[in-house]
Amino acid sequence: MIWLTWRQHRIEVLIMGTLLLMLTIILLGTGIHSSTDAHALNTCIQNRQADCSAAQGSLSNDINQIAENPFFTISLLALPLLTGMFIGAYAIARELEQGTYRMIWTQGLPWNRWLWRKIGLLICPVLCAFGILFGLLSWWISSSNALQWGGSFSFENRFDVWGGVIIAYALFALMLGIFAGTALRRSVPAMAVTLVVFIAVRILVVNFLRPYYLPPVVLTNSLLFSTTPAPAASLVPANSWILSNTTVDRQGRPVPPDELFNCQDLLGPKANNTDQYNQCISKHGLQNRYVYQPGDRFWLFQAIESGIYLLLAALLFALTFWWIKHRIIRV
Fold first, then answer.
1. 115 near 322, Cβ under 8 Å?
2. Which of 158, 174, 187, 192 is the most buried (most CB within 10 A)?
3. Which residue from 202, 214, 200 is spatially nearest to 243, judged by alpha carbons?
């Protein structure tokens, strides 16, 4: 069974291995280089040298070459989907299309054991590959001190690519492809269904579930002009995921832009009257309202979202068994 599964999926597994090797080379090469720059920056700071801006700029450039590279980000986002389309969708659909499952079932291997082994032999390399990828990404961030030294990493843009939830995405996509292939019995339609459903689920989770895994924090601060720095308690913590930023009145209602512009005009280059500006702000009770998820909830949200996708993968796993037992064996 192991040899047969390898023969059927060796091309897809080799392609996955090649992509993983390419990503490993990129991450190792850039990680080692940025680690050297991070060490140089730390040395500069520890020696209390006057100007460390060159070292910090070099490190930030190294980090942003990966963190802000759209091709790299899109590739990581697409890998779970490609796994579901090109490995999962073919896994059972190919057997049903070609009728080879009948030969296997008549050779003394029950259908349930065949399905367990086939799915298990596909899950293992996928789990290992994405586990290695997550380990490489975590090493890359820690080796370059990316979270400390100014890469474009925040709760929002780091969540989908640089967290462990990428493993759950891959398992969900794989089981989605397997179930689609089992239900449709055709490889190409199963690939199309996997593409549409996976993207739809990701959009729904990102926009309607993720922002509310825990109640967001609401912070309001005054728009009054002041020459003294604002206290830390009135500022949104760094790396937070800001869900909304609006200007509201005393009753918490959104303020029309005209009201705010009328007050802001008093600070323009012609007027620059801070007292009248503050009176205008106080009269209308204008204040900023931030709704956000703090950055320290990152790993908790990762665990919650991973649990959602693993639960969906388990459900698809059970549906695949039920479908074969009640819709295919009885045909």
1. no
2. 174
3. 214
